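Hey Z.,

So I finally got round to the zinc ion thing we talked about over coffee. Here's the setup:
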Amino acid sequence: MKNIPEKRSESGGLRGPAARDDECAERETLMMELTRLVQESVRASSWWERRGVDCSILTAAFISLPAGFVLLGSSQMMYFLLGLLVMGVAHAVITVKGTHLASHGALSESPAWAHFWAVFFIEVCGSFSARAGVQAHVKMHHAHTNVIGLGDSSTWKMPFLPRSVYLFIAPLAIPIITPVVAVGQLKGQSPLQIMRTVVCVCVGFFSQYYLLRCVSGLSCSSALLVMLLCRAMFSLPYIHVNIFQHIGLSMFSAASRPKRIYQMTHGVLNLPRNPVLDWTFGHSLISCHVEHHLFPFLSDNMCLKVKPIVSQFLKEKKLPYQEDGYASRLRLFFHRYQELMVFAPPITDLVGVQ
Ligand SMILES: [Zn+2]
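And the result:
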């Protein structure tokens, strides 16, 4: 892995408060400087670049669904498997890329439409509570990235599972776990919100079931099995990507968190581009995760566009720009599973940037 972050800044704890204030101001200026460069790039971009490309990919996923339902009704194995693939890929595009962009309000400039898309993608398509999803992802994970106990990607930590089960078998249960967890997340929400979530999740689930029965002509058990297979098709890389990009990197305590630019450059990692995952999960979850954590309001296409600006800036300013391969991270997790998933990770002490 390149650019392993230093455990301690060069200024360390040896300088006085005035020097630390200067360094703090400098870090603040760095983030402002980078934000200005990124904003210039956004302003110079067309609507197509800012939202059009990603909206078109999501639209294409919905347009492919009728073909998927028809193919799943075929008695020929090849066509049936193609239908399964079409529906699995479309489901991943809609429920991973779509829900992620919708949770950040990146699909529309209008707050009302952004809210509508968040409910549609997260609740109808993703079978989860939009309020709980935004709270967990945007308000906790993004706001408190790698802060222990707040945004440490701890939701998929199950240290009681053997490493092979944790990495390769347990993720397959995500389609069943998601609505169960969603029910638990309803606690504390208003009766109106609970009713909306229950109705939306049921509409999404039963419309897919109904179409598999009526259009594809599948039996009750076959329709449920196809739904499980489609929904679980990308759950392994989904969980892998989720843990690979944060766990094992610098962790911070809530009491002494560093400035934002330091927090994100030390606690986030980019994976290489991958044709399948770029389309299904989106660039912001794969090769532009650092950019996404620095500028979460950007669409996938804009994250990719500002990537050279961000990487060059961070390298020039001697800040980490962490990148590693999928197989390399998988090896790391497999070999250091106990250390990374069972014991509390060490807190990175970035003294001088508080
Ligand atoms: Zn995000």
